[in-house]
Design goal:
By secondary structure, the chain is α+β, with helices and mostly antiparallel strands. The chain has one domain. It contains one helix and seven strands; from the N terminus they run βββββββα. The strands form two sheets. Strands 1-2-5-6-7 form a five-stranded mixed sheet, with helices on one face. A two-stranded antiparallel sheet has the order 3-4.
Length: about 120
């Protein structure tokens, strides 16, 4: 899995990994925290990780700062059918990053989960 830390301004790598993409960013959630599938609501600063697999499955996870465990974000599981068609591997990688950026913005501006994330 190739990981990109989007919080430090790194760009997209032109060589596609065989096992998918992973993007991470720091998020300071508003309005009480982020709902997860396994730990209830996580509050305080978190790291958001978006994993996109070559088969088109995308998943969002959060990790509270200072903790080891990653929690799946409620509503944060997608398939390529829900993500606009990519065409090439390079375009697929860009779409994967767009999912991560959209999720980061949603969760940082008051979204409690990813259920309302709209992929255009």
């Amino acid at each position: 899995m190739r990981t990109f830390d989007t919080s430090n301004g790194t760009g997209i790598d032109a060589i596609p990994p065989l096992d998918g993409w992973s993007f991470i960013s720091g998020v300071e959630p508003r309005n009480g925290g982020i709902h997860t599938d396994d730990a209830g609501t996580v509050s305080g600063p978190v790291t958001l990780r978006t994993e996109v697999l070559p088969d088109g499955e995308a998943m969002l996870y959060v990790q509270p700062v200072g903790h080891e465990h990653w929690h799946p974000v409620a509503g944060g599981h997608y398939h390529w059918a829900e993500i606009p068609a990519a065409g090439s591997v390079r375009q697929a990688e860009r779409r994967a990053e767009q999912v991560h950026v959209a999720a980061t913005q949603l969760l940082a501006t008051g979204g409690a989960d990813a259920a309302s994330l709209r992929l255009h």
